[in-house]
């Protein structure tokens, strides 16, 4: 009976299932986050929010930028992870591959063996990731609504966008796998390195060392160029520390009497040295996570500073002659909660998407906001006020058309109002004109109304007034829905001297960074998982020996706890060191002193260390326990497969 | 030294491990016993049980008159540390340590003084002809030298009972001869040994051979003739072991 490639792949998946757990988990998490980001990127309605809620334009643009960066980071590290995991798996299965080569397997055969395995595991992981991604998208939207004070968001999910996503993921998977198999070349016998290659490797190593030391020099002298060389510095640095510095230092420890401490020290050194590449990759990931969280802290400070002058406003839009019950209720709530705050009704009438408001209402609002008030000498005079962010900067074709229509209707156009305040209350309003009260009264159109309320500002953040305000916002959010073509009944406006809405941007960046950090920790834990799987067989043998030599279970437990604790924490400490270098260069680049940030840095390191400990806990505690059980209690002989 | 009575071991749900059904044998003090049998006959399970690395499902193992099942955890550890020496087929040396350090590992657990321990290790290394290699890492020495290091490690605390699992399985002919001569010399000095092996040459150095098949002892041989003649008897028994039951009765001791 013949065995097919598929059967062979399925058996290998079963055999190496423990190695594939970390692999699948990383792809699932990467796909979950990538899918949710992708849904935002391709969603028209999300981008339409910018048009509907005009002052959010800048925030949405930034969102898209960060989402794009996040997608690139996920793609890059996913390829790197798949590549190194596949290479590690090839190393792990070297004996099987040798047999297959002896039996006549060519490169194409090896490609088939692995591609089928990877496609099965990767395909399942991608499917699971996408499914979870849809759930995460819903959760993300809920969170975005909450953190950015938006009405309910609905996002359509198209089949085409999913197909593009799946195709992209599969392509990344296949490219990374192919590269790993190509580098390993299991179809070729072991070759000795030529003199040229040895020399080249030496030159590369010397070059790398120069880059490393120059990088550290730049970091300590706080030159911004360090930001460019940072990825190289951290990789070479981690590699150098794990491969040479720490093992050499540990070798220097030579007590007169051989002790368990000496045994642990030499075991740590050898673990770090033999797996330095994987450790270095893991270190990059942890550093990225650390730096990202650190940056969020900086943003938090800068953002709060930028937003401290911002003033919120609530505008409730309703196109009806008499106020609705909902409008009355919001009016009552706002009056009751904030009796000292300003309230005003603004009337408006529409010509399709062109709206007009009376001069008296406009000037009342301008007076309250301490902006320049306007006068219209003639009844037929009018002027345009910005309704969309783009209208502040340029004259759009919609504006030109609207102006022409107003002129056709007999109006004389005055210069446009010059202020940063936007009146784009609703996606129906494309252009907005101010006309004299007389002209407004003469227009034979139904009256719509806008209720404008002053609300607590960012300076109230953290007070009872802010809490009350947020509960009102949530109440409104729960009843409003914002989709592609749905008119929003209200909008939160942000009247500010400064264009940047710091708080919203900070919340958004934090949100993206938190998701990304979670993913980075997961992928780092997977790296470590693969690393430990690689050494599992040897470790079992080692423990069996110690046990047979008369070491007690307790001393072996201590041995494992200290060894794995150190092996897991050393790369982390290297990450902290590099992240700190990056952090201080960024701070000095922003012309900020490091002093006030010291306390903040400690908090930052504390939080991330806690997250890191949580992510490595299963590897640190459960894995040694599992090894101990397998090695010392059931049998003293190595189990003939890699399962741990 | 060792008395095994109606020993049995089963592994519920495991098909890879051979169960032992009914094992009975005695090993006198100073004896050198070989356990032979085809792959999967239960040799490894038996040595696991003798080394107290596993618990029997039924029956008992008495070592120096004490049932190992009555050992508490600390006593088991002390038994392995003081009474037992174990040699593995794959050497099981610690890669991170040097040859000398590997030999000294069992002494980490004792209270022997550093100077004494070093002297003893150097003496042993000389006897094992690895005194030139003491400062080398284990991956820098040959297979035979590694096994000698492993033997040195097993001997450093002067155990009374030595268990060896295929001690020459990974060695060439010359290295096998050297290792076996060394073990025979140690046995002559009074050390009791149980050696699991496939190799009739190794068995021929012993004075008592147990033949295991399908989880029970099929027969045993006692040596009272020169090694070369005993070797022939071992070969003969092995060839009969592959046959049917009435062939086995021909070699079964009465």
UniProtKB/TrEMBL annotation, chain A:
TM ranges: 20-42, 62-90, 110-137, 157-182, 202-219, 225-246, 278-302, 508-532, 558-581, 601-621
Domain ABC3 transporter permease C-terminal: 72-185
Subcellular localization(s) per the UniProt record: Cell membrane
Membrane topology: Multi-pass membrane protein
Keywords: Cell membrane, Membrane, Transmembrane, Transmembrane helix
Cited Pfam families: FtsX
InterPro entries: ABC-4_Integral_Memb_Prot (IPR052536), ABC3_permease_C (IPR003838)
Name by which UniProt lists this protein: FtsX-like permease family protein
UniProtKB/TrEMBL annotation, chain B:
InterPro entries: AAA+_ATPase, ABC_transporter-like_ATP-bd, MacB-like_ATP-bd, P-loop_NTPase
Recorded GO MF terms: ATP binding
Gene3D superfamilies on file: P-loop containing nucleotide triphosphate hydrolases (3.40.50.300)
CDD domains: ABC_MJ0796_LolCDE_FtsE
Pfam families xref list: ABC_tran
Residue intervals of the ABC transporter domain: 2-239
PROSITE patterns assigned: ABC_TRANSPORTER_2
Sections of the chain in a coiled coil: none
Keywords from the UniProt entry: ATP-binding, Nucleotide-binding, Transport
Similarity annotation: Belongs to the ABC transporter superfamily.
Entry protein name: ABC transporter ATP-binding protein
